[in-house]
Amino acid sequence: MTEPKAPVRNVSDTARWVAYFRARETQRPDALFRDPYAERLAGERGFEIARTLPDGNKHEWAWVARTYLFDQFVSREVEQGADLVLNLAAGLDARPYRMQLPAELRWIEVDLPDIIPYKEEILANEKPRCRLERLALDLADEQARRRLFADLNQQAAKIVVMTEGLLIYFSAQEVASFARDLAVGDRFHSWLIDLASPFQLKLMQWNMGKQLSEAGAPFRFGPAEGPNFFVPHGWVPKDVQGLLKTAASFNRAPADLLSLLPEPEGPLGKYPWTGVCLLKRTPGPC
After folding, report:
1. Which of 262, 270, 96, 126 is nearest to 197 (CA)?
2. pLDDT class for 209, splitting at 50, 70, 90?
3. In sequence order, which residues have a C-beta less than 8 Å from that of residue 84 and are 6 or more positions away?
4. Is the pLDDT of residue 217 over 80?
5. What's the angle, vertex CA 275, arms to CA 171 and CA 222, rounded to 5?
6. CA-based diameter of the chain, in Å?
């Protein structure tokens, strides 16, 4: 007998799954963003993952809120003078094509070698709205990423970094090292991340962790300190927005979760929280 195909085969499959949710949002008359490329980027594989994962569509509101918040944060940073957007683990993100961006803005996407050719093929006939470049790199390779960061630090005046959906796959020690590597460059001014509380991390591990662990992409990072985890490593949280609060503001949050609002102040260790954070680099050595 033929063994059933795994819902998620590798970490690159998660990018197809996320593109599926962007495609679904784009079809809504009240969409918070429009991504006309998402359906093609998700492909049949992305739709298949959504159909076969247990509760695959249950948290659509969270994926939509995350995309919306990253859109808002990166737009604000570009308006405030960022001349280079560095999207690390860019996946199947289409922001350079779908957002209103200055033509002179430089945008660099970095990801694993297996996903870049697929993305370039899908978008071959599309024109980005800014100066787009793509680099193949394994960000777990410390020496390679340090060389990249040092090189880019000499090429721009104000860099904003995006790591959407990346840090959760790293250990706390690896995230700390990653943060320090970014903080070395004085041109790296801001960093956009998504983050989960320890309790939410456990829920995610229980809900879909088995499938992702089998694909070699287990969920690992959900610090008890929350955004303050990054302070000793050169980064200070300046704006923190919860996904549930954001979804509720647009009437997208599930009714059974509204009892969790308003979000508590202080440590979120035992609270099921996910959000997007704007970090700013601390001047001087970390």
Report:
1. 270
2. low
3. 105, 106, 107, 108, 152, 155, 156, 158, 159, 160
4. no
5. 20
6. 61
**How many Å apart are CA 25 and CA 32, to the nearest integer?**
7
Strand order in the sheet with 84-88: 131-136, 106-111, 84-88, 159-163, 188-196, 274-281, 235-242
In angstroms, what is the C-alpha Rg of the chain? Answer: 18
Q: Which two tokens mark 19?
A: 């593109």
- Dihedral sign for Cα 57, 203, 216, 87, please: positive
Helix/strand/coil for 52: helix
Q: Minimal CA–CA distance to 11: which of 114, 86, 120?
A: 114
Run of H or E including 155: none
Measured CA distances, 150 to 40, 55, 184 (Å): 35, 42, 8
133 Cβ contact list (under 8 Å, min separation 6)? 106, 107, 108, 109
CA distance 38 to 158: 29
What are the tokens at 43?
Answer: 């492909």
CA distance 166 to 170: 8
pLDDT in tens, 62-94: 999 999 999 999 999 999 999 999 999 999 999
